TrEMBL record:
InterPro entries: ABC3_permease_C (IPR003838), MacB_PCD (IPR025857), Membrane_comp_ABC_pdt (IPR038766). This is ABC transport system permease protein. It is a multi-pass membrane protein. The keyword Cell membrane applies. Residues 29-230 form the MacB-like periplasmic core domain. It is found in: Cell membrane.
Amino acid sequence: MSALDWASSWRIARRDLLGRFRGLRLLFLCLFLGVATLAAIGSLTSAITQELSQRGQGLLGGDVEIAMTQREAGEGDKAAFRRLGRLSETIRLRAMARGERPDSAAVLTELKGVDNAYPLYGTLALQSGVYRAPLAPDRILIGPALADRLSVKPGDRLVYGTATFTIADIITDEPDRLGEGFTLGPVAIVSLEGLRRTGLIQPGSLYDSKYRLRLPPGADAQAVREDLEKRYASAGWEYKDRDRAAPGASRFIVRMGQFLSLIGLAALVIAGIGVSNGVASYLALKRPGIATFKVLGATSTDIARIYLLQIGCVALLGIACGLVVGALLPPAIVALAGDVLPVSPGFRLHALPLVTSAAYGLLIAFLFTLPPLARARTQPAALLFRGVVDARHGIDRRSLIAMTGAGALLVALALGTARDPLFSAAVLGATAAVLLLLLGIGWGVRQLALRAPRPRRPLLRLALANLHRPGAQTAALIVALGLALTLFVTLAGIQTSLDSEIRNVVPKTAPAQFVLDIPSGEGDRFQTIVRAQAPDAQFNIVPALRGTIVAYGNQRVTDLKELPDGAWFLRGERGITYSTTLPEGSELVEGQWWAPDYAGPPLVSFDAEAAKTLGIGVGDTLTVSLLGREITARIASLRKINWETMGFNYIMVFSPGTVSAAPHSLAATITMDPRQDNQVTRALLAAFPGVSVIAVGEVIEQVGAIMTQMSAAIVAAASVAILAGIAVLVGAIAASRQARSYDSVILKTLGATRWQILGGQALEYGLLAMMLALVALALGSGAAWFVIVQIFDFTWSPDWLIVLATLGGGALLTLGIGLAGSIPLLSVRPATALRQL
């Protein structure tokens, strides 16, 4: 039965809270960090997903897209497409743009030919206004990057292949840019007739034909796409609809979403521990007041109401501030992330992630507040007065039931709102296992310290006694230190692995140039022209074709409900080649290579990792659609491919015969002094106007810049967990403040100096850090490995010296934080402190 109503309880709570807010600052900080992190993650993910969904038609350029490589659809197929809706045809290829003068610089571009229906959705924006079809055959629209690199403007002239174009305008926004995928150069747009004038489309040339459909109102784009896939199952075409306009961007969102979910859930749990420590610290300061309330007749319900109101007010303030910051952060993140994000959504409030984050904050505050509040509510006044030296940690049944209910709601909320419930369940399970492990280590350390022989050195004896004395916060310190050190190791492992990935973008043996679309049969002439400009040049010339894997073993790809994990090579067309010998950069690991004069049924050498992903091996069959014709080959060997060489590393290498008879071109790498790039490029374009020359250095710079931005974004997100971990450590130290104040006063009364007391505590924290170092190294390395390998599919290659140095630095930092929290206690006068205890 309560002696006080809610109004009276609120008056007492408000007056007490106004008098001393200090103890609840940690509660505020932890909830603020946790809610702000979750709200920012949820808002950013929702903004990008919504932007992709709303712009699906514009990003794709239609409701449905049919794409093919090295060929165009027949007139019969186009007629069938037109019966479904309005049709727009585009052809896209890589081509060299150059000025009219022979000595003009040449730039690799993405040249796109469009028909009069382009664009079906969205607007092609130009500097002078909006594009209106038709585009004259001798006119060209170019991107601003191309204008800058060639120093040209509207009215100037550019040469592509054998055709000359006049620049009509500068493109400011290409509506289907994201749907086109990764590009190696700036864009330029001509009409389909203008593209054919260039002479760049020849048998074997590498180009993409895309047919976009604008369906009638109410038509089901997904159903149309699925029907086309079944009708043309053997054509080897690639299909998209408006709901998956940018699959590469969607995969990026899934991966980044998993990582951010991992960070959010980790911050959530860490914030909960900080809340518990903060509330425990606050109630420890209020212990005399609580005991006095009880002596004056306050019931357990009164105590619960008063302090629940206080804690609730601060919790609501922390949650509200976290929501505000979380809602405002996404635009800043978008601005900082640059090209890492697939789209740049504008500012908009997203209610669902904000409501979800607030619910997380409330449940966390309630769940982790209950244990310390239950102890304060149920313990008798006499026990509260002796709490410093006789602390008890039991929780009554009613509080235990409430905690179980809150925990169940929290897990249900986490799984119910997750994009990948299994992933979230695994993260929550792993986090719970880590916390249980740290709690078990804390209990074990306390028992070992209790039973260990007493050292002769006073400071060491004092440090050991601090681990098991009454009121010792050993378990809380173990959890806090363990989390902090683990997070430091995790961050170092992620950072150094990403740095290594960025360094590997620049292999030591990378060629200077890639050259594509060399006419078949012109390999010797090609080498002669290059050697005239670069006598020491080295070559690797291979046939270049494009094909789609349509079946492996007895499994048709179209019959799969979803692709196997890691089977990226089943998405659309891939480069293939044929060879009489084992290609450079490959190592035979199983099977045998065919004889140089082999002339039997088609054989193929397959990438060993890809074969493992599909569960096939030597002797199994692989069916590839090549220019609309299905070729079934037996796997003769498996190869390990050294992708780091940046050479021509094809996952499929066929035996000569059936494949070599198909129209194709040659591709080459040239290894030479990079200073000879320009003169070699000019000589090649003069002899072969249709070739595309890719400067490897520019590609490396472009990929490296994106990787660097991505690395910065990942590390910045992971740093949030570091801040939360440090807050938890501060809370654990604050929770033991009163007990340490009592110890400090007693020791000073017995003659101990400040430095002796501080030295004892330094030894205590040092012992704990040393015991936790190996545990933190194992847990942190495992977490970093999971992020790098399982989420982002990068190579796990941490710099262990930096990781160990970070672990040592983290240990010193945590030691410094612990000692900094103890310094104010050393200045307390014994007489004053004893009167307060």
